[in-house]
Amino acid sequence: METGINSARQVAETLKSLHVSLYLALICFFVLSLAHPPFRAAIGERVIYVELAATLCAIMAFAKLLDGLCQAWIENRKAKAVRDTQRLINVYRPVSALFLTRRPSMAQAIVYNTFSRRLAHARREFHHYAKWPAKIRNGWRALFDRGVSASWAIENGSGFPIAQTIAIVEANPRDVTQELLNLVGWAEASRAEDPGCAFLTEGEIALFLHVTRQHAVLSKQYD
3-class secondary structure for 69-113? Predict the structure, then answer.
């Protein structure tokens, strides 16, 4: 009994070790043989064994393909986890730490905070356009527009740490995504265009929000 079990295990291991291309070749051979009338006539009732062999090869080929796909998915997940961990440790955590003493804060201003102001704004929009469809559309939209504007600034006045961020990015080029590179370039260019602005530029705000969001996501996954 034990000998039979060991033999069955050896057969199973042998079948598992065969390449999927061999199973596909065997399937083609069996199918073409079964489609050949002289062959079917020669084997007679034993054709069922050929059909079983073809079915077994098909099952093994499917299992091998599925196993290969699963292994590839697992390896990709592992590689992604390694890349994301390195990205968190080398880039997003150091950049996020720069904002511990430079906390950006947002302030909102509402221009049309009462219905009378919104109504006056709607009237101006209504009379600004010549055609009636544009009058109605823009006037109606202005009636519900509160005129909210937001501005960001560093609370302690030390300025946005763009130079330190660039240094971190340049020191870890393999861990930086294209999105982060674009945002760093935008933040630097927007500050160069308006160096005297007391508030954060759109590029600096976008970079800060991206770093904060990515740091939170990666920390939740890998810490």
Answer: HHHHHHHHHHHHHHHHHHHHHHHHHHHHHCCCCCCEEEEEEECCC
Q: Which two tokens stand for residue 5?
A: 């079990």
Helix (H, G, I), strand (E, B) or coil at 48: helix
Same domain, 92 and 73: no
Same domain, 139 and 209: yes
Structure tokens at 110: 């509402």
Q: Where are the beta strands (DSSP E) in the chain?
A: 104-110, 148-154
C-alpha dist (Å) from residue 115 to 120, 123, 126: 9, 12, 16
218 and 134 housed in the same domain: yes
Task: Tell the residue number behind the tokens 């009237």, with chain if given.
Answer: 123
Give Cα 127 distance to the centre of its chain. Answer: 47
pTM assigned to the model: 0.59
CA distance linking residue 67 with residue 193, whole number of Å: 55
- The pLDDT of residue 15 is 58
Same domain? 97 vs 207? yes
Query: Residue 192, Cα to own-chain centre: how many angstroms?
Result: 31
> How far, in whole angstroms, is CA 138 from its chain's centroid?
38
**Helix H or strand E segment including 220:** helix 202-222
Q: Over the chain (223 residues), what is each successive 10-residue block's mean pLDDT?
A: 54 60 72 68 70 76 79 88 91 91 71 76 80 83 75 75 93 92 92 80 90 92 79
Q: Residues 6 or more apart from 177 whose CB is under 8 A from it? A: 87
Which 3 state secondary structure label does DSSP give 152? strand
